[in-house]
Records
---
Amino acid sequence: MLTCFRRVTVILIALAILPSSARAWGCSGHHIIALIAERHLNPRAMAATQELLKAVPVAPDLSRFCKDGQADPFVSAATWADDVKKLEGTGTWHYVDIPRGESSPSLEPYCEPIGPLENGSRRGCIISAIRDQRAVLGNGTPVERARALRYLIHLIGDLHQPLHVSNNGDRGGNCVPLHFAKKPEVGNLHSLWDSGILDSALTARHLTEEDFAEQMDRRYREKFAEWTKSQPVERWALEVHEVGVQIAYGKLQPAVPVEPANVIADCTAESAKVRALNILIGDDYERFAMEAIEPLLVRAGYRLAGILNQLWP
């Protein structure tokens, strides 16, 4: 167990120096989702997406966080939306704050429609942004469509990260400090789900992103038709939200109380309250989390492929 703690801790020390406002799934998770999606694009969708991304490349002076040298423009596009969210004022497009105790199928109270750029930011949430960018991809100019495609590749991934669709008055787990064995705190619940658990698993299994994507696709391939059935994006969000409730929050020990749905996040106060619980992440939590993460990554890849195959049948 101590070996596991050390391995996760090393990874999360690196995460701790990054902004806690989240890059859902980190570099590896978003790349894996794109790799899985590519395996299921029909020939027309594959050709159209590659042509569009190559014809309208990313600005060469844009600072890319994931400096991985991805030669495949589709996979490289998977993290572009995080790199431009401050420039384009689209930070709220990456999540929807569904309260932990919410069970209603209506998400309208938590999601504003897309709005124009005002004071450096735009209105909207991940649900309205996916709808908006899907429409642009079908009807915009080449530049607009390439931008929309890059957003869709990323946002479908974000939608399947439980703490991008779940909130407990803690900014999606950003205000939930965690401990690993006797080490000092090195991260928070959100960063753990963004990258910590997945990167730890890739390291322990000695797998590349490509290897992992192939393994997961092989394991869940028979689910493709079921997971790509036409459903509203809200249904997908609620499905992933339930994972956040039952696993991301629900498996924490000691338990974190459910906050009222209308509570306004006070990160300092929430962090102090949770820190007093001395939450310890161990093997059991890591196992529960990874068992949830694996199918979520695959669902995201399959659903992204399904959307693009519908646009280019």
---
Amino acid sequence: MERSRFITTMGPVATVEEARLFVASVAHEFADASHSCWAYVVGPPGDTGRIGMSDAGEPRGTAGRPMLNALLGSGVGDVAAVVTRYFAGVKLGTGGLARTYAACVKDALTGLPVTVRVPMTELRFTASYAGAGDLERLLESAGAVVLERTFAAEVAFRVNVPLDEEARLRQVLSGLGGAIRILPHDPPESA
């Protein structure tokens, strides 16, 4: 007798709605399958604020929960997993099912390309032309991304700075004196 076939499909999701659409899309793709069990984590790795799971007809607690636990323990966030099962008559028992669904997700995670997302905040600065080079080097060392440079009487910068570097960067910049000025986040509109 043949064994059941398990297919794991994973994808990035930024919202609960995206996760639900992903699950529905995979379930539609494998509409003839016996089960399309799923789990998702929306948010940073390990965050349980926006999670979801379903056993999709398997015995309670044998698919969705083990899949979700694998995702939560993976160090990956903003991800959804669907494990599609084509049942072939061999029963695995509840323990066997739980181990198999968790293993499917863990195996898929090992080959999953991941991107580290760094929370950023936007800051604005002006610098004299003489201080602009120093500011550029300082911003680069802080991991900042220059979004815009405007050259007028001074050089104006609009940058994205890693959130965990903001306080240090502001402190260093304030110690440089008048050559570099930190502008308010939302500068007033010109009249």
---
Amino acid sequence: MPTDYDLAIVGGGLAGSSLGTALARTGARVLIIEREAQFRDRVRGEGVQPWGAAEARELGLHQPLIEDCAHETRWWTTPEETRDLIETTPSRLASLNFYHPEMQQRLLNLAVQADVELRRPAEVIGVIPGDPPTIRLRENGSEQQITARLVVGADGRHSKMRGWGDFPVSRDPRCLTIAGIVYTDLALPEDAVQFVLNPGVQRLSVIIPIGGRRFRAYVCFRHDSRVPLSGAKDHGVFLDLSVATGAAAEWLDDARAIGPLASFDGADSWVDFPYREGIVLIGDAAAASDPSFGCGLSLTLRDVRVLKNHLLAEQDWSAAAQRYAEEHSRYYASLHRIHGWFRDLWFGAGAEANALRARALPRIAEDPSRIPDFLACGPEAPSDDSARRRLFGED
């Protein structure tokens, strides 16, 4: 049946723009619908780990990002060591860090340059699954319907596409709250991430350089340990909590906030099989990974590459989307399993969690390779029961 587009993508962020560019370059008729007239800072992720940087390279996005907005960060620094990511990862790539709104706009520009049709600002008000699927769209005060061979939900962790497609959604129990803010004038190098994990108080401090002497700072803490942080009234609390977690006070002495302070719940939410009846989900819409572990943007790039490859290999796009969904479910399950172990080990509360740390942490200190290398390998890091037993010191 003839359709208005081959691919209609709801959401013009990292997921939507990357996929749109990749398919448009092959001659596909691609539409991106973006609700926001201008991208804003909402305390979103800014780190692509080396395994995700490799995905960006496969998609032809690595160099354009570096040339425009991305900041390569070679070193991963903890109180125990400084790791050279280029020398110690299979991809031989540093992490990519950026200010999220700048990244979104750069990739959306690339999509338009690749002849993607962009409707912005425009609001999707409904999607009807089927063959073909139909989008109900509101733009400039009027409503219309469009059809596509495939509709892609790339509308983030609060995805409406999940509901319109009638996808059952699973969610982890609440555990961590993540508070974040952008600073300038920190007494830190711009080529190293500062990662301070403090299992003794179940907290994590991360400071990520994003270029131009700007740094995104995060503090992650158990949701039941304190109220979330928000707004200028809590700036001092954020700094105090960072230092109490283990960040050096001198790093933050001259810190000047240049963005909002906000908190959000870190619990994963996901769809077990992100395809049905002409609708496919990618990025956070398919699986919103706990930002405490920094894999969300890398996971999104993996989704884009895998879906793109299946669509280019198959005439039957429904079959291609099903193969993507099967593959996504496997690699997300692996990453989710590893992150669950980390939550139990580093952020668990109570006598059982304390006993786990008492057994596992001394053995990890003697042999850090017991920790699955999620920075280098992502979902390809070992995640079987042998890896779990080794992490928890049960071997």
